[in-house]
Amino acid sequence: MTQYPNDIPNDIEIHKRYYNEICEKLKQDPYANSLGIRLVEVGQGSAIAEIEITDQMLNAHGTTHGAVIFALADFVFAVASNSYGKTSVALSMNIGFLSASSKGSILRAIAVEEKRNNRTAWYQIHVTNGEELVAVLGALAYRKNNYFVTLETKDS
Fold this sequence. Notes:
Layout: E1 2-3, H1 11-17, H2 19-26, H3 30-35, E2 38-43, E3 46-52, H4 66-81, E4 86-97, E5 106-116, E6 120-129, E7 132-147
Antiparallel strand pairs: 1-7, 2-3, 3-5, 4-7, 5-6, 6-7
């Protein structure tokens, strides 16, 4: 992972030019893959993913474990905040659980970038079960100096 000088393309140009490379990297999340999370869409500062709830994802009350809901929300946050090819990590996350879901439910998480600058970015994530709002997560990302895609610069 290399740091680049100030002559690199802007975030939107990087997202467009390196879209396939960015998506392939983000799809390789071992934890998300182990849970069966499916990446549905990657946009500029946004993402959509889904998970089907199985027996192993339930808590003692027979509803979806909060950790599974959080993992789904965290994954779309990670994809959205890394969608420009610039390595981003979580600084803080706050989740509110609003309704229960159960085995067989297909949960969908949508992350939307609300504000971004060179160093930080703020995201809102909604997790739904059909029309039912299951959870809402607010998340702050720290945008590091390095890129996980190989950018072509003027010196290349």
